[in-house]
């Protein structure tokens, strides 16, 4: 009964750790064999019988009967007189099986057994957890905010598993409070000691790709393929899509009527601006589409250097470059080409002046503000609408009008 009582006390781990009884019994056998090795030097001559249904177990020690005074290994041999205390009709050479009670291992050994069991179960849990999350790397996962720290948000899923969302894997506009549900992809599983650390990301291109799969049925069904995704998290993204069915418009299907389908993805990503473009193997056309919303006049490609000169009319330059240079940077990443913008214009327009030439009259930080949205010459600024510049920069209307006055004087002179 003492074996059964001890097993029942160990079985509390089964409920706490959600471990099945068969696995628990296997771990128990391993733990007990280690204890037997420590006490007797070997467990080779021991039988451990476990009943997973009843949660009971028996330990039997097998020894050979030898003549009195001839015992060389007390663990595997028993003297005739000792054997006859168990059964009076034993003879030399026969096998004796004797049940070992746990109490015989000693109180300290039993305490060590319990500690070893805890350690083995934790090791089993960690191995299973590592395998479980290793199999879903790259998939979308949802967990609840448990704790917000300066360098990471700690999430917990429905099974109580801890997931880490580092600061650098968060979208800049992300703001989390305890209890919020957070979606991201499982980016990696790292072993910290023996404990797996599960890393989530919301900035990965894979997250945006998986959101397309989740939110757009044609992508999920394989009718539309996401060829490539590039992102500046929280700011702008470009997604190249393709369809092998000519009857399907991949861009229209992804965006939806009035943006209805992509709106949920944009909201999930903190209002990240997403350009969806048709993929093509025609390099010139692909670069032209990648630079949307700008209208490209012509493109000259240098395949050997992986570069392309993109010719644009003056009014299209700022659109091609985009706010903070994001548009042209993402277009380059999407197409795999380093893109150089070449301005086109008539003779009068060619007489342009770099904004830096006006540094005596215009403060450098103001020039930098215009440069952020791709405006680095006098004519490129003068071609813009004042209200639009107020919206696209951090400059006051009065400041913009003063800059335009200075620039106009240059050409009037």
Automatic annotation (TrEMBL):
Gene Ontology CC entries for this record: cytosol
Reported function: Participates in both transcription termination and antitermination.
Superkingdom of this protein's organism: Bacteria
Domain Transcription factor NusA first KH: 202-279
A Gene Ontology molecular function term of the record: translation elongation factor activity
Boundaries of every NusA-like second KH domain copy: 285-347
Segments forming domain Transcription factor NusA N-terminal: 6-125
SUPFAM superfamilies from the UniProt entry: Nucleic acid-binding proteins (SSF50249), Prokaryotic type KH domain (KH-domain type II) (SSF54814), Transcription factor NusA, N-terminal domain (SSF69705)
Keywords: Cytoplasm, Elongation factor, Protein biosynthesis, RNA-binding, Transcription, Transcription antitermination, Transcription regulation, Transcription termination
Compartment list: Cytoplasm
Family: Belongs to the NusA family.
Protein name stated in the entry: Transcription termination/antitermination protein NusA
UniProt subunit comment: Monomer. Binds directly to the core enzyme of the DNA-dependent RNA polymerase and to nascent RNA.
Gene Ontology terms: biological process: DNA-templated transcription termination; transcription antitermination
